[in-house]
Specification:
The structure is a homodimer. By secondary structure, the first copy, chain A, is α+β, with helices and mostly antiparallel strands. Chain A has 5 helices and 10 strands. In chain A, a hairpin with a 2-residue loop joins strand 3 (45-56) and strand 4. The first copy, chain A, is globular, with a radius of gyration of 20 Å. The interface between A and B is large, with 98 and 98 residues.
Chain lengths: 222, 222
Amino acid sequence: MADYEPTKRTRVFRKPGRGSHDRELVHSILDEALICHVGFVQDGQPYVIPTIHARNGDTLYLHGANANRTFRVLADGVPCCLTATLVDELVLARAALHHSLNYRSVMVLGTAREVTDPEEKERALRMVVEHIAPGRSEEVRGANETDLRSTKVLSMEIEEASAKVRTGPPLDDDDDLDLPHWAGRLPLTLGTGDPVPAPDLTRELPVPDHVAAWSRRNGPRT
Amino acid sequence: MADYEPTKRTRVFRKPGRGSHDRELVHSILDEALICHVGFVQDGQPYVIPTIHARNGDTLYLHGANANRTFRVLADGVPCCLTATLVDELVLARAALHHSLNYRSVMVLGTAREVTDPEEKERALRMVVEHIAPGRSEEVRGANETDLRSTKVLSMEIEEASAKVRTGPPLDDDDDLDLPHWAGRLPLTLGTGDPVPAPDLTRELPVPDHVAAWSRRNGPRT
């Protein structure tokens, strides 16, 4: 797959070694992140809203209630920025200044459009389910006409995008290497507790595999 | 502690039961979140950037290299939005439409200012260490003059802020309750792997308690 074209707005200037326009990397980060943060401007004020996304090729889908203010603004096609971030490790240096996190993030710039085709809307909602819990989309009721009327689905093409990745150990100054402070990394992991059945289940149903065995693919650590 | 004053920009209109201006709740979410996403506007385009924050009372601190574009823009005092989000549980409904996440998020609107006082800068950098790994700030080298010259520290007052929290089971339509699909919640947990010592440690140092026993306070689940 070809890289995304770097632009003046997505080129990584600082520490360019951490920046990338690699399409597979961008996709993998978007797929692993459960949520993203979408930024848009209203009356000169930026707003940053967390939301669930799903990806189909180079198309991102978002969904929200019809009455949702954010989605009404975004549906107008205003410039927006969708950022997804995964925190992989604490980076613990000898010097306070050099503390950091190992992370992977993606920034997508563009505009959203409202999806009006009922079939694409229904597919997008299934993709959101699949994004949260892979394997589940076959075991739910798909959206019906009432659902589709009450919901806004937005799509955003991934055209102008960049990834930023930090890996590796803390980078202390040479003068500090001999200080008596432990330095290193602490990997973070996403785990699960016991599934909690809905109180209104009307019959005994086993916890499905896609829930019992749920885990999030972890990107490489180095 | 008194609530934050709701404004036209921070009032939660949709599902107001999920919205809050409770100061303790806002603080607890900001403290638990390792990172936040900061939104700002440049040439009409919103950008959303992940960064580490630290809180001291109603003051948030951010830090970045002097050459960092984002921090140069923010230091000019442009309107910005700082959002921190914690994902607590997957919410798995019978209907695709009703899938969701239980989460806690905070949105702070305002402007940043550059911290120029060396003592406040040094304190802010320690707070960032303490935010990432409580207990560690006593076991690192504080910022020296060179560090302070190379780093921009920004502060942002929490004055206009709101929290949004979703808890509880999936909310399926009455007509769907009898469908043969398991529904419920899957709690997510933040765990740790084994600490990885920096390859340039010059002596044998034990992994300190604040690393070995690191865990993130978890907000309430219901």
